[in-house]
Amino acid sequence: MESLLLKNIDNPASAEIGEYRKTGGYQSLAKAVEMEPKQIVDEVKKAGLRGRGGAGFPVAMKWTFASADPKFPKYLLCNADEGEPGTFKDRPILEKNPHLLIEGMAISGHALKAEYGYIYLRGEYPAAKHILEKAIQQAYEENMLGSNILGKGIKFHLAVHQGAGAYICGEETALIESLEGDKGQPRIKPPFPVNVGVFSRPTVVNNVETLSNLPCIIGMGGEAYSKIGTPDCPGPKIFCISGHVEKPGVYELPMGTKLRDIIYTHCGGIKGGKKLKAVIPGGISTPVLPPDKIDCPMDFVNMPKHGSMLGSGAVIVMDDSVCMVRVCHRALRFFEHESCGKCTPCREGTGWLRAILGRIEEGEGMEGDIDMLLAVAANMLGKTFCPLGDGAASVVQNFIRYFRPEFEEHIKARKCTVNG
Amino acid sequence: MFTSASIKELEKIRAKYPTSRAALLPAIYIAQREFGWLSPEAYEAVADILEVPKATVRGVATFYAMYKQRPIGRHLIQLCTNVSCMILGAEKLVDFLKNSYGIVPGGVSSDGRYSLVIMECIGACGTAPAMLVNDDFYEDLTEKYIAEILDKYK
Ligand SMILES: Cc1cc2nc3c(=O)[nH]c(=O)nc-3n(C[C@H](O)[C@H](O)[C@H](O)COP(=O)(O)O)c2cc1C
Ligand code: SF4
């Protein structure tokens, strides 16, 4: 498949507006400013675009809700928090193809009649901040952003807002709190951001990759775009593969590419010809899969049928030298650290899970610990304020589901049975 | 008190938002840059300029991992040990930093040259293990490579 999102990233000057325009950049915006906002939303609907931030929510539906709200001004926020461990798919767009995102945001801004946009960028991407700010300035100079875009009287202003190292700020209402200058703790829903979002105005939050699809959709038309990928989840998808494969990295492939093909065909198989032990298919919050469960099409509809989720498309591959207790413990250390503290099941539960996993790993696990882990997880699932807590609980449940004997051996042998 | 250059910079940032409160995160970054860490004076400066209570500034700042509540070394090493980096040896690199440079996670080397912070995923998983030194990414790390890198930061 020809790259649509990662086009030109091998060109060292790809972040320059001149280079971007050489290969058709900003032509979709020129087309979009001649369209009515509703027509753009209709194209996105025909395209069947789903959000790439993890949940796969239909973009046209979210946009229709925001458009229906009579309050103005409206805001468009780009979620560039990319905090889900294993995920590095937005970074190449931000660093190498910033104008694709800016063009996508300008088109989306017009579609939503949103006058202001912010890119909420994680603090851990300092290089991307400078690249984006320079690209935004270039876009202003060439009239692709501002109060009179391409002379058509359309207004869309864009700025970068830098986060400061909190994973929870990737959750859209926490992101809004953080943008407003507060602690990034999620808000209760409803009201939904499409009605009461940032600065109490209708707000659409979309992921970097989601918004970067807009130039393609407007360029080729929603109908043609919908033929890429699977019928329920059309379009290209950026997968990012890390861990024990021969060729880790980012791969733009059609949505619905099988997990096995990603690992064995595109990434060249397991490093050093070793044996596959486990795969986390969509970022650390998604359920781990054992080797016999990787024949699943990677999209938002099919992955849940195969016991996991597409998440951010961040595939972490582990060979048989990896201890599952250790990985599970490391994951829970992450969740405990990132729990925002707002609700008790998550704030307390992540700490307990981490502590019990830690003692099992250190050879101090006790009989009954596995059941206690499951009991704590069950008391969190569905009872937390936002999906972070659910994610933490389901990680533990799934590691135990597929690798319970390994946990038991650790407790019995009073040490790590994988790496001695 | 902020320098006049920082005050100007902050005014520009404020103009990007409909409320001055929204400039709080950027203002804390500027304070950290100017004062080296979030000292009482730094908090005071932010609170004064944005007309936000000092307790609010502190409450917000302590929520975020990248705001420094203690003085740090001249160079900040941010090393990832999350799963993708861990399974490719990141924890051995933590030991290496401790044994060869005397830097422990959360600490400063005795000569004040380096600080080490353990990170939760810095988005360089395909080239793990990885770290940031100040604003620069370093990937595919080995002990030898780390030694070469750190040499450059005096
Ligand atoms: C704990 C948590 C972390 C999240 N982190 C991110 C993130 O880093 N990037 C992102 O785009 N979406 C993230 N999301 C999803 C957002 O809440 C939101 O659904 C998404 O930005 C919507 O954009 P999309 O429809 O284009 O996917 C996160 C959600 C949760 C619950
Ligand atoms: S589930 Fe965790 S992260 Fe989400 S609101 Fe509750 S404490 Fe905060």
Question: Layout of SSEs?
Answer:
The complex is a heterodimer of chains A (420) and B (154).
Chain A: H1 17-22, H2 27-32, H3 37-47, H4 59-68, E1 74-80, H5 90-96, H6 98-112, E2 114-121, H7 126-141, E3 146-149, E4 154-162, H8 172-179, E5 203-207, H9 208-212, H10 214-220, H11 222-225, E6 236-243, E7 249-254, H12 259-266, E8 276-280, H13 302-305, E9 314-319, H14 324-338, H15 344-361, H16 369-380, H17 387-413
Helix pairs in contact in A: 3-4, 3-6, 5-7, 14-15, 14-17, 15-16, 15-17, 16-17
Chain B: H1 4-14, H2 24-35, H3 40-50, H4 54-61, E1 75-80, H5 83-86, H6 90-101, E2 114-119, E3 131-133, E4 136-138, H7 143-152
Parallel strand pairs in B: 1-2
Antiparallel strand pairs in B: 1-3, 3-4
Helix pairs in contact in B: 2-3, 3-4
The complex binds flavin mononucleotide (FMN) and iron/sulfur cluster.
Iron/sulfur cluster binds next to helix 15 and helix 17 of chain A.
Describe the 3D structure:
The complex is a heterodimer of chains A (420) and B (154). Chain A has helices at residues 17-22, 27-32, 37-47, 59-68, 90-96, 98-112, 126-141, 172-179, 208-212, 214-220, 222-225, 259-266, 302-305, 324-338, 344-361, 369-380, 387-413, and strands at residues 74-80, 114-121, 146-149, 154-162, 203-207, 236-243, 249-254, 276-280, 314-319. With 420 residues, chain A is an alpha/beta fold. Chain A has 3 domains: 17-225, Rossmann fold, CATH 3.40.50; 236-316, Ubiquitin-like (UB roll); 324-413, de novo design (two linked rop proteins). In chain A, α3 runs antiparallel to α4, α14 (324-338) runs antiparallel to α15 and α15 packs antiparallel against α16. Chain A is globular, with a radius of gyration of 22 Å. By secondary structure, chain B is an alpha+beta fold. Chain B has 2 domains: 4-63, NADH-quinone oxidoreductase subunit E (Arc Repressor Mutant, subunit A); 75-151, 3-Layer(aba) Sandwich (Glutaredoxin). In chain B, 44% of the residues lie in helices and 12% in strands. Chain B contains 7 helices and 4 strands; from the N terminus they run ααααβααβββα. In chain B, strands 2-1-3-4 form a 4-stranded mixed beta sheet, with no helix packed on it. In chain B, α2 (24-35) packs antiparallel against α3 (40-50). The chains are: A alpha/beta (420), B alpha+beta (154). The interface between A and B is large, with 53 and 41 residues. The structure holds flavin mononucleotide (FMN) and iron/sulfur cluster. Flavin mononucleotide (FMN) binds next to β5 and α17 of chain A.
